[in-house]
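seq:
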Amino acid sequence: MSKKLFSILIVVMLLGIAALPAVQAQDARWDGADELPVNPLECPVAEGAAAPEATAMAMDMPAYDGGQPTGAPDLAGQPITIVDIPKLIGIGYFDATAKGTQEAAAELGNVTVINDGPTEANIDDQITFIDQYITQGVNGVLFAANDPVAIAPVLQKALDAGIHVVGYDANSEPGAREWFVNQAEFNGIAKALIDQMVAEKGEDASVAIVTSTFTTPNQSRWISEMWAYAGKCYPNLKWLETVEAQEDAKLSFDQATTLINKYGDELDGLFGMTSVATPASADAVTQADKCGAVAVVGLATPNPMKPFVASDCVKSVVLWNPVDLGYAAVYVMRAVVDGTLKPGDMTVEAGRLGTLTVVNGSEILLGPPFVYTKDNIEGFDF
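struct:
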């Protein structure tokens, strides 16, 4: 081979390498979220730049893909009893959703809600609780899934028994329930989390994640959308590691501490993906005397985060109102039982929340995520 041809080949190879997308992760990447469908939102518009043109094309609504109960009795307008079985009980987040379910029940006047469930985020225990209430006999089951696949058979059993099934917070396989009340679309949550982290630590920050489990449906979807959005808008953001903490406060603290010690000055930020992981991560950063050096951005209820926001160790907390989420789930269940929400409908009325929109065939959107900061967090008590 001539020297000239060899030189040309080297130049071509170098140009090819330069054209490759930036590598964002170490070998492990996101652990369980790498094959999920993603739809990253548009990147932030630079200050002074023209906003992208809005498209006038309306997206086609996917066909209804939920399940249907077999032989459900006609209880339109009649008193009903429903059971609410979240991932676990006894933590602030699901205490707040339970409060919302009871508020809706009191407003409606013809709904009784039983709030029950496991004290640990264990899918086998959650299945056992649902199965027990199917046997006892209820008119409806509300759930927030610990595992979307594993929970599906027992939810299908409820549908086969003529019991209405509505999910919220964490979905199941669509055919195993009728409707799912989505607190915010996955790509909206992802954008809010990433944008907040970049605002604090810059576009080339090195970050890690504390989540519950790699199979928890909402968290894995958020993480996959975070990956896609960052790849699109912040390709120099560096992903270090994702660790599981099982919705356990001590384990979340220990995992965050391990990440702080493992990566040292390389670590710029921690994402907390649960209402347990985020305050525990903030506590770990505080105790490690890393406030300011390591940003904590995550999903959490306001009350546990108030001390960390007040001390300026945490600048922003991303969430929605979980009281409203539980409230909406009960109104959706009542509408399903009454026959005022049917497959193919585009909206549903939800009391003080007004009209909620159906998205993705069988999901009902609560609304966009909300960012709690030092300026507004004291106005919320849950």
